Amino acid sequence: MLVRAISRFVRKLKRSPSYELDPSTSDLDLVSIILVRAITALRGAWYSLRFKHVGGLMFVGRGVRIRHGKHIVVGRNLTLEDGVQIDALSREGVQIGDNVTLGTHVLIRATGTLRNLGVGVKIGNNTGIGDYCYLGAAGGITIGNHVSMGQRVNLHAENHQFRDASLPIAQQGVIRKGIVIEDDCWIGSGSIILDGVTVHRGAVIGAGSVVTKSVDPYTVVAGAPARPISLRT
């Protein structure tokens, strides 16, 4: 009975009629999960005071660090797992939709240097960012709805210029084009996505790939550099 009651509660919370807990989940497991969620919700209520806007419940783990929270706007049911760090100082800030999870030790850095503020980050609804992912958003990062991102994915929305061998690279400035990941994409663990790339709707990036060029819709790519290997049908 407890499992069914909690299923109904979570289904209502997520606005999803298809959401069901696994029937093998025990009452003891559920009590433990609920206690942890309650603690993280209380912590989330405290952290929400630092944000520009919070649309609903927020769940915050231990060791979370937020800088420039007044540049952050979030929707309902945001989960920040242990050790998440967000530095939101940027022109457009950090905007996060509903039902988003940032895994353990995710790092979002919206600006690389105070001399030239970054663009910022937008994350859609029902998206999960895996543990230890890095989002360097100086050139702007947009992530759509229903995106699944594995562990240790790196997004670098900025490139150094280096053509003039007579000057240190650090003195040659940067190029910023931005990164876009559209809806319903799966980014495999350990992948690296470089500035200027658009991963179009429904695409899949194989684990460990280095993505240097845009990916067509519903295309599976893999390798370093990443190349098409199949189509989703």
Summarize the structure in words.
By secondary structure, the protein is α/β, with parallel strands linked by helices. It has a single domain, classed as UDP N-Acetylglucosamine Acyltransferase, domain 1 (3 Solenoid), CATH 2.160.10. The chain contains two helices and 25 strands. A nine-stranded mixed β-sheet has the order 2-5-8-11-14-19-22-24-25. Strands 1-4-7-10-13-18-21 form a seven-stranded parallel β-sheet, with no helix packed on it. The chain has a seven-stranded parallel β-sheet with strand order 3-6-9-12-15-20-23, with no helix packed on it. The longest helix is centred in the first third of the chain and has 22 residues, at 27-48. The N and C termini lie far apart (40 Å).
Quick description:
The chain has 233 residues and is an alpha/beta fold. Helices cover 15% and strands 29% of the residues. The protein is built from two helices and 25 strands.
Output the strand order for the largest sheet.
Answer: 2-5-8-11-14-19-22-24-25
The percentage of residues in β strands lies in: 25-35%
Rg (CA only): 19 Å
Please name the fourth-level CATH homologous superfamily. Hexapeptide repeat proteins
Number of helices: 2
Outline the biggest β-sheet.
9 strands, mixed
Instruction: Assign an overall shape.
Output: globular
- What is the CATH first-level class name? Mainly Beta
Unreliably modeled segments: none
Q: Could you say how many structural domains there are in total?
A: 1
Class by alpha and beta content = alpha/beta
CATH topology: UDP N-Acetylglucosamine Acyltransferase, domain 1
